[in-house]
Amino acid sequence: MTPTTSRLRSRGLAAICAAGIAGGGFLGTATIAKAAPAAVPTGPIAFSVRSFDGTTITGNYFRSPASDGRRAPTVLKGPGWGGAAESDPSAPTDTAGGTIGLAPLLANGYNVVTWNPRGFRTSTGKAQADSVLYEGRDVSAILNWLSRQSWAQLDRPGDPAVGMVGGSYGGGVQWAAAALDRRIDAIAPDISWNSLKTSLYPNTTAKSGWSTALYGGALAAGQRNNPIIDTTFQQAANSITLSRQGVDFLGSWQRTNLAAWDSAPALILQGTVDTLFPLDEAAANYASVSRNRVPVKMVWFCGGHGVCLTNPGDTSVIERDTLAWLNRYVKRQHVSTGAGFEWVDQTGVWHSSATYRPNKVGCGGVSANGKGTLSLVSAGGSGPYTGPGADQLGPVAALIATKAPNAVNVPIQFNRATKVLGAPRLSLTYSGTAPGTTHRVLAQIVDNSTGVVLGSQLTPFPVTLDGRTHRLSLPMEYVAASAAPGQSFTLQLVADSSQINTHPSGGSVTFSKVSVKLPTTGGR
C-alpha cells in the first residue's frame, strides 16, 4: 500500500460521514499521551441551557482529571455542520481536519464543554448558519451557565476563564460568539469562513458538489434549518446561480466578516486543500483581526474540507500550536506561541514568518502566457478523483480536482527555487458562442511533478459568449506551494468539473490571450 493509499483509507466514507461533514473536517489520527487516572469523573455529563429566545441548547461537559477536583479553565468545542456534541473524552486530535481532540485538552488541565447548536440533534430551534444574533447568543447562554458551575475557574464573578476550539461550523460560531461576548479569552477557529457568500458563491457560481454533500449530511442527521438554507442548498446543487434571497442570506452582516468585531486573541487554522472554505477566507479573517490590534496567528496545514493527496509534513503542529495558544491566553502562562504565520507546501515542508502579508503579483514574480480553444462539454473535465484509494472515498472523490483532458494548457516554468503563496492573477482575452445565456469556465493549476492540482482548487469565472471579443482579469483561489529550479506547473482552463458543475451545453470559447502571474514570497 502506498503512503497516499494509506492516508486515503484512513479517510474512508464512513469516517468522513462521521467526522468530515459532521465533525467539520476529515478523519485523521494523532498520538497523544494517556491522561493520568481521573481524580474526578471526566464525563460526558449532560446539561441544557435556555437561550435568549427560549431555545433549549443541550450538550455535555467534561472535567479535567488533571485538576484534581479544583476549579479549572474551560474550553468550548462546537461540532461541524450536521454534527453533534462530542461525547468521547478519549478523542484524539484530528490532524486532517485541524481540530484538537478532547483527550489532549483534558490531559492538559482544561474542562471541556461540547454542545448541539440550535436545530441540531436534541437542541430545539432552527439552524441560522452561525448568526451572531442566534448562535452567537446561544454561546453567551452557555457562558452564563458555565460561570455558575463550581468546577469552572473564573476570571471574575460571572466571567469564566474560557477558550473556544472547533472546525467548520464549530469554527464559524467562534467568530459569532467572540464578536458578541468579551468574556471569551481566546479562540482557535479551524477551517471557517470570512463570508459565506464569497466562499460558497465565488464569482457568482454555486459550489454544486459541496452543496449536495452538506445538504445531504444535514438531512441524514435530522437537522432543522432556517428554510432559506434548505432552499439555497437545493438551488446550488442544481444550478449555476442562486436567488437574490439566498445571496442576501449568505452575505448578511450577521454572518460576514465577524472577525472585524473580534477582541479575543485568535489562532486561525485553515486547510491548503480546503475547497469549501479556501485559504483566502482565513487571510481575510487574519487581516480583520490584525486591524483590531488583537493577537493573531495563522496556520495553513494540508487538510480541511478536502483530502491531502501530498505529504502533510509534521501534523503535530495543530495540537502543539492550539495548546500553546490556549495556555498563553486562557491560562495566561508565559509561553511562546511561535511564529505568527506557519504554512506547509505540497512537498510537506513547513515555512514560517513573523506575520502574514498578502503577496502581490508583480514584475518580479513568475508569469506565463498562452492561448487555445476550449470545447464547452462535460467530458474531460476536472474530477472526480480516480487515483489510489479512490474506492475508499465514495462521493468525496467528486470534490477533488484532477488534471483535465479537455483544457487549454499554459505551461509555467521555474528557473529558480520559488515559493508561491497567495492568489495568482489571471488575465484573459476571449470570444466564443454557445447555447444559453449563463456560462462558466474554471481555472486550476497542476503540479507537473505529481499531476496533482494545487490545493484541489478551482476558480470559476463567468464568460460572455456572444461572438464578440471580451477581456477579463481576476484573482484565482489561493495556493501554497514550492517549486524547485527546472520544475513546472500548468495552468488549465477547463469546461466542467465534478466539484463545480458548470452545466456546459456545447459551443466553444477561444482564448486569444491567457496570462497568469503567480505571487511569490521569500522567508523561511
Automatic annotation (TrEMBL):
Q: Which SMART domains match?
A: PepX_C
- Give its E.C. classification number: 3.4.-.-
| SUPFAM superfamilies associated with the record | alpha/beta-Hydrolases
Q: What is this protein called?
A: Alpha/beta hydrolase family protein
What species was this sequence derived from? Branchiibius cervicis
Xaa-Pro dipeptidyl-peptidase C-terminal domain spans which residues? 323-513
Q: Where is this region: Disordered?
A: 68-95
The entry lists its GO molecular-function terms as:
hydrolase activity
Which taxonomic lineage is given here?
Bacteria, Bacillati, Actinomycetota, Actinomycetes, Micrococcales
Q: Which InterPro entries match?
A: AB_hydrolase_fold, FrsA_esterase, Xaa-Pro-like_dom, Xaa-Pro_dipept_C
Q: Which UniProt keywords apply?
A: Hydrolase
Q: Which family does it belong to?
A: Belongs to the AB hydrolase superfamily.
**What Pfam families does the annotation carry?**
Peptidase_S15
